[in-house]
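Note to self: keep these together.
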Amino acid sequence: MFGLQFWMLPANSVYGGWAASGEIDIMECRGQSPTKGQGTIHYGGSWPNNIFHGSGEVDFHTDLTSDYHIYAVEWDQNQIKWFVDNNMYHTESLNKNMWSGKGKNPYTKNGQPFDESFYWILNVAVGGAFFPPNQYGVLNVNDAKQWEKPTMEVDYVRVYQWQ
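Structure:
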C-alpha cells in the first residue's frame, strides 16, 4: 500500500509539538483507492491530545494517480478551502477556538495555530497509520519495487499571497 501526500507543517512550532502547531493536508490519496482523496487539518494540542477534521475520503470519479491534477488550498484568516482541478470540495472555518479540550490549551485566540507560516512536504507514503488497519512494519522496499508505478510526478508547485 502506498499513498501520495501533499501537506504542510508549521515553519516554527510556536504552539508546541505536533499537532498543536498545526498540519494542513492539501491532498492525501491512498494507492489502493486511486479515485479517492481527502483534505484535513490537525490541531488541538500536542500528541496525544490532538484532533483532526477534514473532508473524509471524497470520490473524485477519476484516477488521481494516472494523470496530472491541480491540488490547491485557499487559506485566509477565516477559512481554508480545498480544491481538485479547480473544483472546491471542502471548507474548514478558522473562526473558532481550535483547542481539543484535552491537555493544556496552547491557544489564546480563534484561528490559532493557522495564523503562522507553514512549509510544504510532498511524499510517497509506504505503510503506516495512513492505511487502515495500521500497517506499520507490514511493507518494505522490495514490496514497493513490485508496484506498477511507485512514484510521484509533479509538474509544478506554486504559492500565491493575497495582497
